[in-house]
Design brief:
About 40% of the residues lie in helices and about 20% in strands. The protein is an alpha/beta fold.
Length: about 240
């Protein structure tokens, strides 16, 4: 199967040659950083409708990890447009981290639509280096559709454990690689190089559950599922939470 994958990858790369040229010239990254938030705003609306029950089930236990004051201090890693705000418990204090400053105006809109959460600040930073966030300062970290596109998953989870207080929890919902020897995995491999370019660094073939399992949390609840999404290649998902 490997030669077939390589041959089809080559064909897809040839078809996407104009994009590769723009990327070589440094133009495509500039376009993505400015246009991707508009795409994600539309995608997140559809994704939330299709994944609403999964998100409600996942985030339903967030309040259990609130600190002694009873107020939940939450950090959302790779916040994007703020699509998760509607699923957070009332009174939750939210700090958002994202490397793309162009998401800020979408966050402002989400804040206005979700008055039940208390927005703290927007930190423009990569998840691998969240120095503006103090050690042990948050009760929960939320990460949805982010591990697919970060540079270093291991470093991300080190930072997550650093900013969590003892007993704090890391909540995740991620699309991942399909099971090997399936047609979904075959086409994920074929389209991976162009997908990565078109969708601002998103990878179809990451086995993110392995990184989470190795991260050193004291407790891990992890579930694999087939998400009810229109795009078959991103249906394989993992979700759950891990306790520091």
């Amino acid at each position: 199967m490997a030669p077939t994958v390589l041959l089809l990858q080559l064909a897809v790369r040839v078809l996407a040659l104009p994009l590769y040229l723009l990327d070589f010239l440094g133009v495509w990254s500039w376009i993505c950083k400015r246009c991707f938030p508009f795409f994600l705003a539309r995608f997140s609306s559809v994704y939330n409708r299709q994944m609403a029950s999964t998100k409600r089930g996942l985030f339903g236990s967030l309040q259990e990890h609130a600190g002694p004051s009873g107020a939940l201090c939450l950090l959302e890693l790779g916040c994007g447009t703020g699509a998760n705000f509607q699923f957070y418990p009332p009174g939750c204090r939210v700090t958002c981290v994202d490397p793309n400053p162009n998401f800020e105006k979408f966050l402002i809109q989400s804040i206005a639509e979700n008055r039940h959460v208390q927005f703290e600040r927007f930190v423009v930073a990569a998840g691998e280096d969240m120095r503006p966030v103090a050690d042990g300062s948050v009760d929960a970290v939320v990460c949805t559709l982010v591990l697919c596109s970060v540079q270093n998953q291991e470093r991300i989870l080190q930072e997550v454990r650093r900013v969590l207080r003892p007993g704090g929890a890391f909540y995740f919902l991620e699309h991942v690689a399909a099971e090997r020897s399936t047609w979904s995995h075959f086409w994920q491999q074929v389209l991976e190089p162009v997908w990565y370019l078109v969708f601002d660094g998103c990878s179809l073939t990451r086995e993110s559950w392995k990184t989470v399992e190795r991260a050193g949390f004291s407790k891990l609840q992890l579930q694999r599922l087939q998400a009810p999404l229109s795009w078959p290649l991103v249906r394989p998902h993992i979700c759950g939470y891990a306790v520091k």
